[in-house]
Write a structure and sequence with these properties.
Elements lengths: L2 H12 L4 E5 L3 E2 L39 H4 L2 H9 L2 E4 L6 E6 L2 H10 L4 E4 L4 E6 L5 E5 L2 E4 L5 E2 L9 E2 L2 H8 L28 H16 L5 H16 L7 H13 L4 H15 L2
Parallel strand pairs: 6-10
Antiparallel strand pairs: 1-2, 1-3, 3-9, 4-6, 4-8, 5-6, 7-8
C-alpha cells in the first residue's frame, strides 16, 4: 500500500474533499474483483461510474469518499497498492474545476474568467471555483469542465482564493459542443511519404482498412483514448511504411476520434506516440 497516498487522501477527506485512487493513465481503480482493471466495462475516460453491479459504487467518481474507515479498509488496500495518485470528486465538495490544457487555454481564461484558486498541472492549469455544474469535455479547444459525475487529479492546494463559479463557465456547459471539432490544426502531423499506392494488394485494401478503423473508433463505448491510440497504431503498423497514407486518410481518422469527444491535441498526441513506438 502506498502509505503516502493514503495519508494524502485522509488529509483531504478531513477537509471535506471526497477522494479516490487513480492508477497509471489517470484511470480509476476498481475496488472489487468484478471491477478490477475495468473488467466491468466502466468508462474511466468519460469519468462515468459505468455499469457496475457492485452492492455499492466501487470506482470512478461515484466511489469518492470522505469516510476514513472506507479509505483505510481492507477492500481498498489493493486499490491503494495499484494507485499512482489521488483524485477527487469536485462536485462532492461543491466545486468546479476548469481544466486548461495548454498556454492558449490559459490565455483565454485570464481574459475571460474571474481570478480564482489556481493549481499548476503538467501542461496547463486547473482553475477551481466554488459552485457546481455539469461536466463537459472540450467546451472549447483545450478546456474541460469537471464538476458533477467527474474526477480531477489532486495536484496540490494551489494559490489564490476560491471565487464563486461565474456565469461564463455555466454558459459553456450549457452549450452543446460541436459533434466534430475542426481537425485542421491536427493535420500538421507527419504522414509517411511515399507514392500514395498501397503495395499490399489493391487500393481497396487500404480503403477497407481505413473504414474498419473509423468503425472501431466510432463503436468505442469506453476507454476511448486507448481505443484511438490502438487504432492509430494498427493503421500505421500496416500502412505506415509503404507511403500509402495521405492527409485525407488522416483527416478521416481524426474526424472519427473527435466525434467521440477527443480533442485535436489528443488525436495528434496519439498519432505521434504511435509513430514513435513503431520507429516511423
Amino acid at each position: 500500500m502506498s502509505v503516502s497516498l493514503v495519508h494524502t487522501a485522509l488529509r483531504l477527506a478531513a477537509t471535506g474533499l471526497p477522494v479516490l485512487p487513480l492508477r497509471k493513465g489517470k484511470v480509476p481503480v476498481g475496488n472489487c474483483p468484478a471491477c478490477r482493471d475495468s473488467a466491468c466495462g466502466d468508462r474511466p475516460h468519460m469519468k462515468a461510474a459505468g455499469p457496475c453491479r457492485c452492492p455499492a459504487p466501487c470506482h470512478a467518481w461515484a466511489a469518492a469518499t470522505t469516510d476514513p474507515d472506507v479509505l483505510t479498509s481492507p477492500a481498498w488496500a489493493t486499490a491503494w497498492r495499484q494507485a499512482v495518485t489521488v483524485a477527487y470528486h469536485p462536485a462532492g465538495a461543491g466545486l468546479t474545476v476548469v481544466d486548461l490544457d495548454d498556454a492558449a487555454a490559459i490565455t483565454w481564461a485570464r481574459r475571460t474568467l474571474p481570478p480564482t484558486r489556481t493549481v499548476a498541472t503538467t501542461r496547463g492549469e486547473h482553475w477551481i471555483y466554488q459552485g457546481t455544474t455539469r461536466s463537459v469535455n472540450g467546451v472549447r479547444e483545450g478546456v474541460d469542465i469537471k464538476s458533477t459525475m467527474a474526477y480531477a487529479r489532486y495536484l496540490g492546494p494551489g494559490t489564490g482564493d476560491t471565487a464563486p463559479l461565474p456565469d461564463a463557465v455555466r454558459a459553456l456547459t450549457a452549450q452543446k459542443p460541436p459533434t466534430v471539432r475542426p481537425a485542421l490544426r491536427a493535420l500538421t502531423v507527419p504522414v509517411p511519404a511515399g507514392g500514395g499506392q498501397c503495395p499490399h494488394r489493391t487500393p481497396a485494401y487500404l480503403e477497407r482498412g481505413i473504414r474498419m478503423a473509423e468503425q472501431r473508433i466510432t463503436e468505442a463505448h469506453h476507454q476511448v483514448h486507448a481505443t484511438v491510440y490502438r487504432t492509430f497504431l494498427a493503421v500505421l503498423s500496416t500502412h505506415g511504411r509503404c507511403g500509402c497514407l495521405t492527409d485525407a486518410h488522416l483527416s478521416r481518422l481524426f474526424t472519427a476520434a473527435q466525434a467521440k469527444g477527443e480533442s485535436a491535441r489528443h488525436c495528434t498526441d496519439a498519432w505521434m506516440n504511435a509513430r514513435t513506438r513503431l520507429g516511423l
